[in-house]
């Protein structure tokens, strides 16, 4: 039974889902890094929010870990490259809390416009400072969105309801989509110059880090009000403090901070600043949504192989996972076969999907094929990081789909191009769900994959099979299966021998010395 750790505060809906689905679950929130490092190797999955940091060193000791599920959107607390390198899938719940967070941004904008927190505190203190608080209207004002994705778009929709004019800076927002949303797409400088309110809704990336820098703040309309419900690092906090002090910025409402939990911050204590402790996603509805979703997604992956909302893997539905599983195994084994025969650098990999194989999730199959291929010489490669490793090594990967042409209902062929040669291997999945090797170079055959095999190329002349069998018998290597193939009588032929146990090097050397043998290699699957 797979075991999952819930490391941040999640709705109890998550625990119930895990239990119902047959996943063992521990709830241990508020762990220090050291505590997490001590226990993380027990778990197949971890469910988190923004508090727990899944760093490189956590991934390094989490030997069983297969999936990190973020009950929410931002994944800047997860080292995705490290997870990818370790074959750990990182998932989030991209829509579960977006309405709630957009509503928080609007709430903060209103609180800022009318100084609600200060007025509230003053009234509770019995001061009745009616003349102290003078707000501004939102009606007719320009709202500048930095980032117009899911949350930004909902904020825009609500702001339009308040009769604001909405402009957005988002390089990835198409003109059509902007028009559809009633948003004016602008450049950042234009937004800074025109907006009465600026609200941030981008992820924290190297490009967006410090997007509201001292320089950017200097370009804003004097008296601008800023709302940040995305990530603290988007604003240079020291620069914001200076801009508030100079009056360039009239106020800021912040839900997120460069360092969290934010116990001390240069902006604390400033009455022009409205703060909440990262509450953007904190409504009953959103927390129920994200907890349910993340528990379903993690359970699905661990129990069925289905992948939804992963940031480092293509999606595969549960139904598809069932269908594609034997083909993934085939693709990986074909890749492993070709990889073990390849001793030189690889220039290109061409994968052909025919018939029923062409109707399956091609990205997953290609990732499996690449993983098998590259793992032969780089054990750290896995299905998740294989495309990246191939790219880093300059291996050109191409895929072709074709309707059924041959006798097999479906098959996969992998062609590996090296500076010396091109080698093709192909296989299919039989009705029993077992992958079969059906072609090596141009030679047709029919062989199952086994943990230990010997691959021999030889001249097709009488006497070879007997000698090989005798040698293996004499050296106590038990033959489980023996498959032969040749392009034409008397031409090149190959023998694939399934053996029980590892093949000693001395036996391989002896096979290579047999008459008619051209090459011999031990293969492992
Ligand atoms: N305060 C809170 O509790 C919460 C905060 N968030 C934060 O809100 C962020 C936005 O969430 P969603 O809208 O769901 O994400 P999203 O992915 O739907 O939208 C992000 C938008 O930012 C844009 N973008 C990316 N790089 C940009 C750049 N350099 N300049 C301008 N725009 C850029 C993208 O094109 C995209 O349209 C999340 O990344 C997360 O960090 C999300 C939920 C709750
Ligand atoms: O979903 C997000 O990106 C959030 O920032 C929400 O964070 P939280 O789950 O409340 O810690």
TrEMBL record:
EC number: 1.1.1.95
Record-linked PROSITE patterns: ACT, D_2_HYDROXYACID_DH_2, D_2_HYDROXYACID_DH_3
InterPro entries for the chain: ACT-like_dom_sf, ACT_dom, ASB_dom_sf, D-isomer_2_OHA_DH_cat_dom, D-isomer_DH_CS, D-isomer_DH_NAD-bd, NAD(P)-bd_dom_sf, PGDH
A GO term for molecular function: phosphoglycerate dehydrogenase activity
Keyword Oxidoreductase: yes
Gene3D superfamilies reported for this sequence: 3.30.70.260, D-3-phosphoglycerate dehydrogenase, domain 3, NAD(P)-binding Rossmann-like Domain
Keyword line: Amino-acid biosynthesis, NAD, Oxidoreductase, Serine biosynthesis
Reactions that this protein is recorded to catalyse: (2R)-3-phosphoglycerate + NAD(+) = 3-phosphooxypyruvate + NADH + H(+); (R)-2-hydroxyglutarate + NAD(+) = 2-oxoglutarate + NADH + H(+)
Function summary: Catalyzes the reversible oxidation of 3-phospho-D-glycerate to 3-phosphonooxypyruvate, the first step of the phosphorylated L-serine biosynthesis pathway. Also catalyzes the reversible oxidation of 2-hydroxyglutarate to 2-oxoglutarate.
UniProt-listed PANTHER family: FORMATE DEHYDROGENASE 1, HYDROXYPYRUVATE REDUCTASE
Record family assignment: Belongs to the D-isomer specific 2-hydroxyacid dehydrogenase family.
Entry protein name: D-3-phosphoglycerate dehydrogenase
Species of provenance: Rhizomicrobium palustre
């Amino acid at each position: 039974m797979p075991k999952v750790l819930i490391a941040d505060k999640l709705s109890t809906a998550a625990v119930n889902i895990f239990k119902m689905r047959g996943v063992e679950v521990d709830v241990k929130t508020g762990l220090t890094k050291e505590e997490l490092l001590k226990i993380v190797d027990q778990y197949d999955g971890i469910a988190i929010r923004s508090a727990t940091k899944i760093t490189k060193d956590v991934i390094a000791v989490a030997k069983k870990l297969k999936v990190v599920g973020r009950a929410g959107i931002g994944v800047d607390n997860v080292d995705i490259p490290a997870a990818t390198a370790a074959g750990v899938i990182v998932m989030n719940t991209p829509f579960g809390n977006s309405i709630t967070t957009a509503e928080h941004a609007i709430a903060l904008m209103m609180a800022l416009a009318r100084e609600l927190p200060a007025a509230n505190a003053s009234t509770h203190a019995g001061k009745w400072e009616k003349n102290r608080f003078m707000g501004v209207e939102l009606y007719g004002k320009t709202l500048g969105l930095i980032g117009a994705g899911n949350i930004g778009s909902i904020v825009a929709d609500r702001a339009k309801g308040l009769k604001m004019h909405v402009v957005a800076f988002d390089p990835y927002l198409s003109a059509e989509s902007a028009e559809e949303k009633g948003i004016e797409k602008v450049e950042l400088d234009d937004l800074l110059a025109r907006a009465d309110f600026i609200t941030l809704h981008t992820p924290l990336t190297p490009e967006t880090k410090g997007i509201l820098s001292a320089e950017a703040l200097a370009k804003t309309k004097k008296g601008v009000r800023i709302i940040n419900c995305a990530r603290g690092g988007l604003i240079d906090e020291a620069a914001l403090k200076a801009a508030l002090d100079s009056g360039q910025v009239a106020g800021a409402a912040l839900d997120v901070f460069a360092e969290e939990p934010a116990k001390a911050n240069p902006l604390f204590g400033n009455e022009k600043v409205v703060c909440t402790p990262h509450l953007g996603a904190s409504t009953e509805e959103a927390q129920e949504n994200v907890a349910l979703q993340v528990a379903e997604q993690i359970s699905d992956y661990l129990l069925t192989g289905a992948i939804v909302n992963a940031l480092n893997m293509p999606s595969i539905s549960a139904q598809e996972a069932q269908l594609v599983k034997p083909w993934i195994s085939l693709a990986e084994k074909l890749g492993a076969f070709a990889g073990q025969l390849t001793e030189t650098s690889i220039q290109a990999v061409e994968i052909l999907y025919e018939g029923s194989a062409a109707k399956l999730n091609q990205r997953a199959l290609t990732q499996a094929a690449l993983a098998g291929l590259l793992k032969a010489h780089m054990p750290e490669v896995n299905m998740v990081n294989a495309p990246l490793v191939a790219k880093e090594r300059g291996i050109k990967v191409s895929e072709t789909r074709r309707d059924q042409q041959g006798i097999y209902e479906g098959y996969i062929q992998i062609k590996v191009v090296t500076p010396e040669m091109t080698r093709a291997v192909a296989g299919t999945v039989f009705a029993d769900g077992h992958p079969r090797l059906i072609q090596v170079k141009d030679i047709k055959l029919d062989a199952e994959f086994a943990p230990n095999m010997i691959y021999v190329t030889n001249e097709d002349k009488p006497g070879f099979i007997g000698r090989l069998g005798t040698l293996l018998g004499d050296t106590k290597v038990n033959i489980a299966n023996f498959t032969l193939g040749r392009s034409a009588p008397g031409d090149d032929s190959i023998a694939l021998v399934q053996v029980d146990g590892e093949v000693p090097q001395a036996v391989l050397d002896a096979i290579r010395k047999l008459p008619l043998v051209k090459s011999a290699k031990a293969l492992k699957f």
